[in-house]
Amino acid sequence: MRIAVLTALFGLALCATPAAANDWPGGARAAVVLTYDDAMPSQLEVAIPALDARGLTATFFLSQVRQADVPRWRAAAADGHELANHTLFHACAAATFEADPRYVTEAYTIGSLLREIEQANVMLAAIDGRDRHGFATPCGQSTAGGEDYLEALRASGLVTYVRGVSVEPADLSAEVAAMDRMHVPAKAFDADVTGAELIAWVQEAVRGGGLTVLLFHGVGGEHLPVPAEAHAELLDWLAANRDLVWTTTLQQALDHAAPEAAR
Known about the structure:
32% helix; TIM Barrel; 6-stranded parallel beta sheet; alpha/beta
């Protein structure tokens, strides 16, 4: 998907109830979530093998899944990775990039967009066997027919959270009693990033004692690709610093932050 996403690092330190600022599993100082959008082949061929080799898990937002890739996505879920909803057709605003006019957000209503999200959940459940799925807005946009659909999505109960975007940095050291699961922002990276820069983002979360969500597309190739070498450097750092950071899926991080919401 040809998009240019402006996002900001998201970090938060959790309050004493239900989780204190340093109450991440294993005494970790921060939680780190790696997310990957669009079910790209490089994620199966490069990212997942690299994660598995280091015993790390991540979250993959799937759309337009190729039938031939279903067994590998099913295996990824069985190995502990989270598969999450990114709609079936990845509709964005018509001005974002050239697309089939049937699959631009102007052609949708809120009702039709929610039905597509519901059907994407059916697809995901057929792959991973799970009955709870998170969601990421395609292109970081949350409109259908010119109307914002997030409150309708919240009311529908179809998804457990929405990973979106933010253009303002969060205060990594601030204690947050409750987060709005319909607005979980992330920091996007692409071809210009270095391993040192990726590690620096994570280290900011360590200093703040919170949670940071990173967003990738292609790894080593395809759309908005992060260099495979930079990606590997980040994973090496995460694997070597398990005492400092808990690298987990977005659903697990959010469930830990507010366990009552996971019920």
